[in-house]
Amino acid sequence: MKPLNSEQFWQFACKLYSKDGMQTKLLGYQDQQGKNVNLCLLLYYLDSLELAVTPSQLSELESCIAEFDQQALQPLRATRAYLKTIQNEVSDYPIIRKELLSAELKLEKKQQQLLINTANTMIFTLHKQAENIRLYLSDKQ
Question: Are 70 and 56 in contact (CB under 8 A)?
Fold first, then answer.
């Protein structure tokens, strides 16, 4: 199997995320179940390539992004959410919001690269009906 390409994954993820209802679904996984959106997107990507992950591979993928998520992305999201609650008190809120969103997008892309780098160290099983997202959402790892 040739290595996964982070730019192709990014393009796939952007296209999938923009589909009707997908953003709401993914953010629901994040907010209600504590799941990582980029990992969900990677699992959908692997499904599209007919590649199945094992529970141990899934755990390794989760681990490779855990610290980055906790130290970089979650604090940025929290800052953005907080500022939204006080936006009337922040005179240049629209500019700050736009800059924070831009930074968050760059960090999301970096996290996807971390996932691809880790995935490229793995050997996946070919499976025409791969449903990796179910494994992740089932919590039976």
Answer: no
The pLDDT tens digits of the residues spanning 2-16 come to 899 999 999 999 999
Q: What is the pTM of this model?
A: 0.92
In a domain, 1, yes or no: no
DSSP label at 125?
E
Asked whether residue 112 is domain-assigned, the answer is yes
Domain that holds residue 13: 6-138
Give Dmax over CA atoms of the chain in angstroms.
Answer: 54
- Decide: residue 9, CB within 10 A, 0-12 exposed, 13-18 middle, 19+ buried: buried
How many whole angstroms from its chain centre is CA 127?
A: 22
pLDDT in tens, 35-70: 999 999 999 999 999 999 999 999 999 999 999 999
